[in-house]
Specification:
CATH class of the largest domain in chain A: Alpha Beta
CATH topology of the largest domain in chain A: BirA Bifunctional Protein, domain 2
Oligomer: homodimer
Radius of gyration of chain A: 29 Å
CATH architecture of the largest domain in chain A: 2-Layer Sandwich
Strand content of chain A: 25-35%
Largest sheet of chain A: 9 strands, mixed
Largest interface: A-B, 66 and 66 residues
Distance between the termini of chain A: 17 Å
Helix content of chain A: 25-40%
Chain lengths: 575, 575
């Protein structure tokens, strides 16, 4: 189509609230328009991109025997009550009442809907396994929207649910889905997306992976190993420490006036942070009960692992006078009654640490946990750290990186089928609960992530598989008869052969035309100009600068067509 | 795919609450599963149908230069306040608050979103005209859901919005869209859908059409003419009466003990209903003020026309003692003060009518409205009736029919662009409001309507353009080696040529297989059986019984392929 007819707009200035580069480019290029907090209208140019992403996803889901269906966005609260999530999920689950006063929710995910659907439909073992999926609008009432389409409240998601009669079969299919996801990201042009082991969070289940686009602007921290393939989300990564047990020493209570931080304590006592035991204090959400986690002074707490261990939601503590806690001087010995204590595994085997004495301006030195406290349980609740030990290969090769989560897969088990009473009759006549997996990809977030991964200072560089058009045809001086005629022919011939062309024949300067083309990010640019035609040539170049050619007019269409087809083939896509 | 692997279920019994045949078949065939009141999950078989409907709609919208985009489902109330509809629409607009307490709505239509989007994007006359559309989930909190997907609360809708710089241009494009809609319905297999003039209702604007599938189970009443092309929704149809002026007579007050209905009055006075003036009483919603509409005794009130004339929402009156009204005996003369009176055009020119005297058990005869009441305004607020006068050809040829509305188109004018402050700079430098049109089609309702129009007692008869599969392959006795081998070859060859095949190779009786196939409604059935193979033939038949052939095994694939292609071509569709 002609660019002049496209409903579009480009802006010179970056809106002030843009925090990442892809967001800035997608705002400047007229890809997205905010309607409310974390709610966007997608321009036609963006819908062309997301439609191609959805097509790739559909092809790969169908290839692994997925069956597309459609669940509702608005659901009665009753099915969310059955699973227990109506009460267990916080205010990111949007609840409302309809005109009759009935409680409803907006779907942020569809485990409940899928189990509701399968109930009464697949009641014999002969009907298993199967996978159903949808591509549908979701709403998640995020407190912190961010980065354009990266973190929004309303989004389009592909969510898939598989049902199995054995854990082995789930694992077999999980692996198939794992590979399908790799194919999807490869075909969408971000083959460098990596799968990392993840925490299952509110979804339940045990084994799960997130697909991460590694980028400094990502919201997640990924733990990786230099020496092997180990990769995990920080939330789920074990922390394996290496350290010295140190010498045994006598317990001494020392005055430490106004020494409240590990750094101050180390300077004061002339010791290393590894020789201290620090305290981090939380409160359980429901009871306000205090939880004190102790860990080696050089490490940080991993709240997700702590939460999973406690099996309770927690928040950083507000320490009152009545609590009996002495901030800055908290240690294992002499804590008030009723405080729940957790010892991190990093403290195990250390012979002597410095730690708080639960009195103002007082610390212990020579503190030996088993000697002073008796045998205690050590739990892994610390964050993995650069230079830490890899849980797979055992080398001190851990490093961290940032990533955007573009997809996830979960082995859910029977959490939903049990709570919602979904059963089938097994071969031996007994009633059983199917075992579930679930598999999500956010379409808009993937588009934004691709933009984040493929861009330069002037605009996105769309992979040819998801580009809004294949070819950006620029007619410099379209008022020139020959330019107009040649451009029209190129446009007609490419279009007839299935190549998607956006044609700019506006009477604007070459500068405006090219900077607009940069913001469109179309992979192939074809420039027809009076100067080129004088030499009988057309300029053809790649948006990513990997190709630049001057071709005789008669050869241009064939060249462009072949180039587009072969570039598409590299990403296993076709015209 | 194999039917045994399809997530599906069929039922022998029709659920008790099914009110129309297509709903019963779609429930029995496992097309839809209710999740809540007016909220459904669509089975994979249905998603295949709606995806094809959406593809046809996209092709036709793109053909008339529509540009697909995506608006949000959940929107801030602010843009609905700008248009005034946040307050003017009743509880079918679902309102809720988000976690921050902000007022939000679920989109039941997207005029506000489209104007919000175009604002700042199309600010010069050079960018007009254009049409944008989306295919997206809508929510309308219907008080009365009905008929499966016919009337639901959540549904997928194609909604399009066009923007123009002149009324002439809107009218030009409106005609183009009118034709595109006819093509869509034709290609979806319901070419007998008719466009009727409609009331614009809450959408605003003046000219509008509804596309109606004429069927006795429809919720709308359509007014048509036997002698010309005139068609209108009852809500919008003018009522042109023909009647006798009758003789002048003296006004007399007569005792009519307990005579409260027109029928009783006619019997008592030995006159015809055309010689009476009846009263219908409403109250305005906001003020509870009484409205009395008078019309000729043989006619019925058209509440939509009355509402439009009053420019107020009304409800049937609750007549209290304090009102001063005398139910059964209400007439124009002697009404309490403060009552708003409307005279229907049917009363104009009648010399004498019988009507209430506003006293218990008393009527007037010989009542001449201008003589007793002075000159009054007559307004058309009566329902058109069988045998009435056609407003186009003038003949007494009006008749009525029932219909399901499957689409609508509106000339909106500047209602939204003015209220929401959308302007563009015109050629002369002045600021102007674009003129809008809007165009909707409910995807699920269209699927259900096609089912209602094309079915027999045993199941739907899907048009080949939107059928879930083209061919239903039945292998009778798939345990027979030759049956299995021939079936596999037919399946493979058809699939390789792009024909969609659902293959039933279950070990069930022919009866079960065929009754399931009837519920699937796939247009072409291919039966491979030991008996047929003994004679070297395959049975091929059409679901609608228009074709039944026995073909030699070697010719079967070609025959089926050619048949499918030619049937698709009739509906302007391709493999």
């Amino acid at each position: 189509m002609k660019l002049r007819n496209l409903v579009s707009k480009r802006y010179k200035e970056t809106p002030a609230d843009c925090v990442i580069a892809s967001q800035a480019l997608m705002m400047r290029g007229g890809y997205i328009k905010p309607v409310g907090n974390g709610i966007y209208t997608l321009f036609p140019i963006t819908k062309r991109i997301t439609a191609k992403i959805e097509k790739i996803i559909r092809e790969e889901m169908n290839r692994i025997d997925g069956q597309e269906l459609l669940f509702p966005v608005a659901m009665p609260a009753s099915i969310w009550r059955e699973s227990g999530r109506y009460d267990s999920i916080g205010s990111e689950l949007l609840r409302f009442t309809d005109r009759s006063g009935a409680d409803m929710v907006l779907g942020m995910t569809h485990e409940e809907a899928s189990v509701h659907f399968v109930r009464d439909v697949a009641d014999s073992y002969t009907q298993y396994p199967f996978m159903i999926y949808q591509i549908q609008t979701k709403f998640r009432d995020e407190p912190r929207c961010r980065g354009g389409l990266i973190r929004v409240r309303e989004f389009t998601m592909k969510d898939a649910y598989s049902f199995h009669t054995s854990q082995e079969d789930l694992e077999r299919y999980y692996k198939i889905c794992y590979d399908a996801y790799n194919r999807i990201f490869f075909r969408a042009g971000v083959g460098d997306v990596v799968a990392v082991a993840s925490d299952s969070g509110m979804m339940g289940g045990k084994v799960s992976h997130e697909y991460m686009l590694l980028t400094p602007v990502g919201e997640d921290t990924i733990v990786l190993c230099h020496d092997c393939d180990y990769r995990a989300n920080m939330e789920a990564a074990p922390c394996i420490v290496h350290g010295e047990p140190g010498e045994m020493a006598d317990l001494q209570k020392v005055e430490t006036p106004n020494i409240k931080t590990i750094d101050d304590l180390c300077a004061f006592l002339k010791i290393k942070p590894e020789q201290t035991c620090k305290a981090v204090v939380y409160q359980e959400n429901l009871t306000d009960k205090y939880v004190v986690a102790f860990l080696r002074g050089d490490l940080d707490i991993n709240e997700t692992k702590l939460r999973n261990y406690l099996k309770a939601e927690i928040h950083p503590a507000e320490i009152t006078l009545e609590s009996g806690l002495t901030p800055g001087f908290i240690g294992p010995k002499g804590l008030p009654e009723g405080v729940r204590v957790v010892y991190d595994a990093s403290l195990k085997g250390i012979n002597a640490v410095a730690t708080g004495a639960n009195e103002t301006d007082m610390h212990y030195t020579g503190f030996n946990i088993p000697r002073e406290m008796g045998e205690v349980e050590y739990v892994d609740v610390a964050k993995a750290y650069d230079g830490g030990i890899c849980p797979v290969c055992g080398k001190k090769s851990i490093y961290t990186s940032r990533g955007i989560e573009v997809g996830n897969i979960f082995q859910l088990g029977t959490k939903y089928t049990e709570s919602m009473g979904l059963t089938y009759v097994d071969q031996d006549g007994s009633l059983k609960h199917p075992i579930m997996g679930c598999y999500g990809i956010g379409v808009g977030r993937l588009a934004a992530s691709v933009c984040e991964a493929h861009r330069d200072d002037y605009g996105p560089v769309w992979p040819i598989s998801i580009t809004p058009w294949h070819v950006h045809l620029c007619s410099l001086r379209a008022d020139n008869e020959e330019v107009a005629a040649v451009s029209q022919r190129i446009y007609d011939e490419l279009t007839a052969r299935g190549v998607e062309v956006i044609w700019d024949d506006r009477s604007v300067s070459a500068g405006v035309m090219f900077s607009d083309a940069d913001l469109f990010g179309v992979p192939v640019r074809v420039v027809v100009s009076p100067k080129g035609l004088k030499n009988g040539t057309i300029e053809i170049s790649a948006r990513d600068k990997s190709m630049q050619e001057k071709k005789p007019v008669a050869e241009a269409v064939d060249f462009v067509y072949d180039y587009v087809v072969s570039e598409l083939a590299k990403l296993e896509c076709r015209l």
